[in-house]
Amino acid sequence: MSIYVLRGQPVHVVEEGHLHRQVALLVHGWSGSWYAMSPLLGLLTRRYRCLAVDLPGYGKSPPFPYRATIPAYADLLAELVAQVSAGPVVYVGHSMGGMIGLTMALRHPALVERFVLLGPTISGRLSTFINLFISPVTLLEAFGLGRFIVSGVEQAFVGVTDRLMRPASFAERTTITARDYRRLRADARRPGQGRVRAECYFAMRENDLRGRLRQIRVPGLVIWGAEDNTVPLRDAGVVSDEWAEADLRILPKAGHWPHFEQPVLTHRLVAGFLGLPLLVQERDVPLSDDTLQQTVEVARFLVNSDLGRALSEANRMRLAAQMHLRVLRPGELLFQADEQGEMLFLVWRGNVEVWGDATPPRRAPRRLAVIPPGQTVGELSFLDGDPYGFDVLAGPEGAVVLALSRSRLLALAEDDPVLGTRLFYNLSRAVARRARFALWQRRTGAPGPLVPPYWRDPRPEDWGRPDAYLQ
Prior knowledge:
By secondary structure, the chain is α/β, with parallel strands linked by helices. Helix content is 40%, strand content 20%. The strands form two sheets. The protein has an eight-stranded mixed β-sheet with strand order 1-2-4-3-5-6-7-8, sandwiched between helices. Strands 9, 10, 11, 12, 13 and 14 form a six-stranded antiparallel β-sheet that branches. A hairpin with a 7-residue loop joins strand 11 (343-357) and strand 12 (365-371). It is elongated, with a radius of gyration of 29 Å. The termini are far apart. The model is unreliable at 358-362, 450-460 and 463-471 (pLDDT under 50).
């Protein structure tokens, strides 16, 4: 935990993740604290340096010495970004935190690379339920005498607002844990924060973003609970109409807190959108800097490969993280005929050669194909689970291949069905292209990649050793 002093204003920040990685800024909403973003910290720290802030007036941060406004919060966070980051950040915001982030992007467009927003306030007009039943308490806190009355009977108001806010905040069949619920409600009724709660209620109404979202040029994932009775779904319609780069997702059985109520589904959407290297169930596995750098290099290579065709940068990162490298010496066997086909291989460097038996009476193997970088090998056995039909070994200069197991691909497809569909399409396309070429060879009588003249027939015990084929 850290305290940053920004323009003389102390701000409490919870920091997790590697110091030298890209910053992910997590910002809570109205009447919250950094804890409102805690379900996403374990996931995001696998790739980012995460800073979860307590906005001034909330959590452990003292209030502004002046009236709180959304632009004031946005400018303060811009100052924080300038202090901690060498480049644009990933902004993750909930409710009012989403409005603050969008306002920061409008006022400081160079500071945000992409957004993940959960039930963001857009119009500033909260639901009718909130305005009828919650706002009277909030308005009472705006005035000195009212604030004194509310603080004097704080515990009584806790019980009242708990009963009122539960249907406004959570789905009817919510799965939020009792521990998380108690912590969120304690934040919402933290003593001494009545003034800032009242100021922020009016600040959101004064900062209507309708008609301004068209100026947002960065991509965003926007997640809304289908039963959100705090920030109404009519604000989601504004996002759909005005923000061209937004990917809007509506989650069933979730209210205003989808990351608490539907954590697995929320994590899958966030991981897919940000290209987080690990699968959702692996989010607590440490990810070293070397592993992350290797993943980035593989993702770049995938751009021009059979598997990476038409994948976004985020999707290539996710795919790259599921592969492991195998370095082969010249002539080293990658797999042999009759071996169970559980792996798909993508050639990264060098090339590999496919060898099979010639038709009788010739008994020595012959080279059937040379697989260059960017192409796959072992696709049919990988898809149908039958043994491989040929021997595959590294070429004369060796090779580096990327190996992908069937279980990893299926887990990735479960995590991100859209990505999984595209990967299976790319794989089937590669198989079809190779099959068409083989049919063309047969139809035209064109020779395949037969053994060159400088190669000789080896003895059966030497098969698989490239030097045995040289004269």
